[in-house]
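Hey, resending since the last one bounced:
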Amino acid sequence: MEPLVEPGPPLTPQERQRWSRHLLLPSVGEVGQRRLRAARVAVVGAGGLGSPVLAYLAAAGVGELVVVDDDDVEASNLQRQVLHGADDVGRPKVDSAADALARQAPWARVVRVPERLTAENATSLLAGCHLVVDGADNFATRYAVADACEQLGVPEVFGSLLQHDAQVTALWPAAGGPGYRDLFPAPPPPGSVASCAEAGVLGALCGVVGSVMAVEAVKLLVGAGEPLVGRLLVLDAMAMSWRTVRVRGAGPGGSGPRREVPQPRAEEPLPDDAELTAPQLAQALASGAGVVLLDVRTGAERSLGSLPGSVAVPLDDALSGVLPPLPDGRVVVLCRSGARSERVVRALRAAGRADAAHLRGGLLAWAADVDPGLVVT
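The structure tokens again:
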């Protein structure tokens, strides 16, 4: 394959010493190293996947790294997001990551973008990059990144993980490879797929997957080897097994059928009485009004913290209307962020429970507005 980047200036003696192990590789060599020094790579997400990707690309000599992330470091991040330390809790991730990279690889220029990448700004944020690495943790960002890369004609290295499982691929419709929508045509309904915050993730898995993503990025930049374009790499860490799934693209030169980008179906907004804010729920509980709290989170989530008196019901049961015997009162559904509980309320109301409501913003809102001592992660 052709390299993405033209070689930069000749290496200095100091640079030749620094990257001597790359210079020994026929796949990289001095010309390849000069390509890396001239490369501009965007990394979306400075978290579990972004941490190893950024560290290895900076160490490899990538000249400019654009770090896009609007989150702050939280204590629960430290189990896997190895660019950040305990003293960074509360700081913007782009600042913590930039400081860590400045210590590890002061030769790399880091551009901090403390913004949430959206469908509206993705193209402008990613323009001018040779390559994009997507380590985002939500579907909205993944689709926005992929659509922008396809529009810009820029290749993308994508990775995702949950619990002990992971996926990695390279997406490049402009070169005849698949795009993200060839793999996943439309986003799943909100709350239908658990996040790492809800289901957990093995911390070291981020290092394994992020390192593979960094290798793919280097291969694409210097034009070496066979990138994962058209192949989805799937890892089961519990069995420590990798398998490869072939994926056809529908872009120029691709062999797959032409795909249509589906338009998401907008749901009707919930009526006002189907949602309670955290202060409203607190007032209802304090007044002694008949309220039955239904917690549809997983057992592991509930073990960290829950509201006293709440009834645990598996999400699938609640969506199917299979509820245990409940005391009299108005059902208020709880989850972490409000996405799953909203789905349950829609199902309950469709099944005839017209007074069912959910906690808007979930227990995260409760911890923020009512009880900071409640552990929700």
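The chain is about 35% helix and 15% strand.

Sorry for the duplicate.
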